């Protein structure tokens, strides 16, 4: 699979439809996000991986609309610097990176597996760019305005790593599952998937994760940390049975369950658990991507057109 297909003119109503759909999904994802679990990063990455390049201008417009609206509303509260960078769509600096990557590598390898080198590089670089933009935005709100005040370098550094983790984990939460759904839908109809063994195993994993999330509400300390880390076990189970696409879909469920175990923003224990979860999930996805699933569709049947 590659991006070498023909380029055609796109009607303006198609661009508007793509922009409106992306803006709506992006805003919903933002509503459920926090600094160390940023779901819009997953929506952004999935679109830049799967959406034809002729619609990328529409993606920029779709992200700019909610971002600029929210940013401008925050200027009276946090100042013009914060509002200016809060109004900056992170997709803009991500586009040159993704354009360079998609021109040099395919998302799907000839054997039908996912190119995790491309996926991992894109996830990390886009997360880094998002962390930089968000940290500069925060600096505008925290920077001292009077002589003698200390510059909050430590706080900005902590926030940077929280934003980096949030964007990377947000990408891992949604982008792999959206890519996997693209593969599965192309392979067979949704009804077959819904009634198949993958759906049953995902339901079993969801039950385990729901029990874990409920139990986490009654735990603390080391027991709570162990419960949070154990949420990666269903992902491993589904990955062993269904390969990369099963791991991707179960990873979304596990990440959501993990996020529900804390109501405190920037809880250090939660951030540690999410960092471990992100590392383990990345490893599972990388290993599972090399396991060739016999029923996976050929990349030739999944063109990414420009």
From TrEMBL:
Membrane-topology annotation of the record: Multi-pass membrane protein
Keywords assigned: Cell membrane, Membrane, Transmembrane, Transmembrane helix
Top-level lineage group: Bacteria
Major localization class: membrane
Listed name of the protein: MASE1 domain-containing protein
Chain ranges of the MASE1 domain: 34-286
The keyword Cytoplasm is annotated on this UniProt entry: no
Pfam families referenced in this protein's UniProt entry, alphabetically: MASE1
GO CC field: plasma membrane
UniProt subcellular location: Cell membrane
Transmembrane spans: 56-75, 81-101, 113-133, 160-185, 197-216, 247-265, 271-288
UniProt KW Transmembrane keyword: yes
InterPro entries for the chain: MASE1 (IPR007895)
